[in-house]
Amino acid sequence: MTTVRQRRVGKGTEAAEDQPSEERNVKPDGKVPSGGKLWNLLSVTLGGIIAISLGLLTSVYVATLHENDLWFSNIKEVEREISFRTECGLYYSYYKQMIQAASIQQGLHGLVYDNKTESVRTINILERMNVYQEVFLSILYRILPIQQYLDPVYFYIYTLFGLQAVYVIALYVTSWLLSGTWLSGLLAACWYITNRIDTTRVEFTIPLRENWALPFFAVQIAAITYLLRTHLQPVQERLTLMAVFIATFLFSLTWQFNQFMMLIQALALFILDCFNMLPTAKVMWLYIIQISALLLVCVLQFFNSMILGSLLISFNASVLIARTIQKNLKKGGLLNRLGKLILHVLLVLCCTLLINKFIKKILNLESDEHIFKFLKAKFGFGATRDFDANLYLCEEAFGLLPLNTFSRLSDTLLLYVYIFVLFLMTVAALIVAFRNLSDSDQVQCMEETEECTVTLKPDAAYNLIHTVLFGCLALSTMRMKYLWTSHMCVFASFGLCSTEVWKLTLKCIHLYTSQRTHVIKYSIPIITLLYISYKFWPGIMDELAELREFYDPDTVDLMNWIKSNTPSTAVFAGSMQLLAGVKLCTGRTLTNHPHYEDKNLRERTKQIYQIYAKRSPEDVYRILRAFGTDYVILEDSICYERRHSRGCRLRDLLDIANGHIMDGLGENEPDLKPSLYPRFCEEIKKNLPSYTIHFTRVFQNKTFHVYKLAKHK
User: Fold this and answer.
1) Are 134 and 111 a contacting pair, CB within 8 Å?
2) Where are the chain's structural domains?
3) CA 31, CA 329: separation in Å to the nearest integer?
4) 553-709 maps to which CATH number?
5) CA–CA gap between residue 410 and residue 413 (Å, rounded)
6) What segment(s) does the record annotate as region Disordered (predicted)?
7) Whole-structure pTM value
């Protein structure tokens, strides 16, 4: 098991504040005073410099934490590779494979015709996995004159840490665009850094797909926020649409869960469009961009069927069809429009399900069925004995968001501010939505219209629904909290620096004046920044001063033994998390791996995991040999697992799936029966003749037991 230990000493623009303020700086002839132009230019320049500086500081910060936690610069190459745990190691192995290939063409050929990731099968890695970033980075490393100065692993991790700068700058810019002041962006960035435990995990899961994708997702949100501003010039609109497309494409290319995140985004656009809170033309363009980006990724991934069968493509196509049919959706009185709206929603949902069912039927697609089984069981639509669904249900990362998350977010004041802003904006959104439905002939009211006391700009409306939907996702699934918490920083800082929010608040308590609003929107954020700096700066300094060291001697011994004592063509079976490290450190062939988005692989993994079930040695031997296995690795941490409670241990999931009674005290379902055989991983260690005829132990330490399979004729 990989751990860290205490390190031993001595080892070798500001843009215009809001629309009215822009108008106040304009002369009667329509020209902006030269003094105002100069001030705006200086403010934008200063805001931009602060954004870039904060982005770079964040990159240095997470890189330093990574170095201090592992002493990465001092450990051996095998230890560095072991530190890329589980699926991280699998993804990094393809970067390493491309670097070590004789040529770029040979490296690409090895990925397209890969026979080492899954034994007795040849698969296309570029189709199955989102590893184009590793391909691009390896090619870049080969063609740049940096090999003598920078190891491949450092080029890789520095790129990921560099993307954190892009991430923070995008969050900063989004908040700035929403509020009109770069002070809001500064506060968003500071909250992102001080809430690092809940906003990113890049420093200890570097190659994880989300660490590549989320910076591009943040850029996309910033571009959408700018696109939804009013009075954009046609050239500005076209350039912004191009930026949205590029960011959406890069996000889709780098993460296999892209379609689910963009489906939530499409739902946000759909809700706002139904209530006439966004320009319909821009919403339609965003739907088309999502489909186009995903189809382009589909082509690059050799027509990956999981993308073609995604709900996102079916939903977006259904919305476009429904809008073509229902052209007068936004005309009529309240009851008339509500009736049309309900019909529109039903039409879209029915079309989505029909199109998706048709595509999956044509393509015979079952790659994502485990996700829907998991969701069905998670939200209480019936218990399941499905091994794959239970494997997700029992993982903490796929459980509900822990309550201590809110405690940490409260310490930085982020949660309190977020709830305050969310409440006010939600009330404003409900009022605006009702007004839009009640009077379809009314032109979108502006702040200067005396009749309208509550307004909500399109960019703010989008970010409101975005944060609500992704908040629901995070609350239900802890692993997805990073999509929400980073946007929390943006949304809370925007509200704290927003003229509209404070204007609405002060009007509610009958204290509104423009001067008071102006003072509050700057003083409160500055006080908040001072509080954050005072409370958290010492802790950050202590964190940067703490030195630890990577320590996992058992895994290092295992990898060194495999490299020295087994042929390069040997096939290894074991847990999918460990085998990812085996592939990276030794280059040996695997029977299974952690990239779970394939039905055949899921069935294969369940079969391989019978080594931890109550099965006869003959059954286990037959299963392993069917996948060409030469060696099997057993882990005590799985065989005698205590991390999960009874019913969620891997051996329990296997027993339930096999119809066997679970070990230990506790209830069992009435139809479960005792197994005829003892647990394989325990019994094999007794060296009984029925086991030694098939398996010979060739390596052992405190954590791992490696057995070689006999080759019977």
Assistant:
1) no
2) 160-363+398-440+453-545, 553-709
3) 40
4) 3.40.50
5) 5
6) 1-31
7) 0.92
